[in-house]
Design a protein that fits this description.
The structure is a single chain. The protein is α/β, with parallel strands linked by helices. The protein has eleven helices and 14 strands. β4, α2 and β5 form a beta-alpha-beta unit. α1 runs parallel beside α2 and α5 runs parallel beside α6. It is globular and about 55 Å long.
Amino acid sequence: MPSLFDPIRLGAIDAPNRVFMAPLTRGRATREHVPTPMMVEYYTQRAGAGLILSEATGISREGTGWPYCPGIWTDEQVEAWKPVVEAVHRAGGRIVSQLWHMGRVVHPDFLGGEKPVSASATTAPDQAHTYEGKKPYGEARPLSLDEIPRLLADYDRAARNAMAAGFDGVQIHAANGYLIDQFLRDRTNLRDDRYGGSVENRVRLLAKVAETVANAVGRERTGVRLSPNGEIQGVDDSNPEALFTAAAAALGKVGIAFLELREPGPNGTFGTANHPPIAPAIKAAFGGPLVLNSDYDGERAQAAVEAGEADAIAFGRPFIANPDLVERLSKGAPLNKDDARTWYSQGPEGYLDYPALATADAA
């Protein structure tokens, strides 16, 4: 039976274990979305992960609406990512860049007052994080058909920039209520053109983005994240199993290296589970390596890998407080608790100062 600590090959990426680091927005870049030196140490501390999925990284000014998050659409951003990636590689790690377009949850403040884009003219619930504090979201405008090539070009550029920065590959963020997810699900996709209506049409943008990115960096270096099941940021679907199995089949046809699913359980902390789990059906439809992510502990993660439910498990919050999470899980050691107050703060506190196991034992 496979173990959580066995190596696995994902396309061109040889991961030394199956404990992956999930994408974690931490807000330590500059206001211009340029990575900072402290990010070098943060990612290097966590290089023991089988694969690091970077924090969500903006593909364009239009798609970026989180304070102090990094981007990868300018030369300055690419150059600032290089020492991060180089340090992870020197420490023996692997890292891919998660490509992010937030769609309707980009507040107009980030766009000079212009409306954000989405599948349709809808408004996200709750409030946006801005540099001036929380504010209500603005109504999005529908992305027009003649803008699709420009959007695909943004993904192409970002993917090529990631490879220029030295990343081992990229992951397309198509989850959690962001732009591609807004196109996928029928609560937010109200279109009547070839990108709306039927499941086949709503999957079209995801497939085109995946094809574009795979052509740019290679299918063997391309992954995708989906979040089936339950409402996330006001995004939901009336028939998620039909939708997400079709999406998985389309991605399998493209031939991407791996698929990650964020499928919250009944007690999950991100979204709510309104439907039975559909990961098994998605895994069958996709046909390639599947990574699961949803509040796993070591025991549940090992059981999922042994049972063939997943090929690897991505851990989120445990990696915030436990830079040596792989070692802790392998030894059954206790985990540090993360401090939510410092998740998105800009300083080193709660970012670089969580002790590794050896340090804690010495203390």
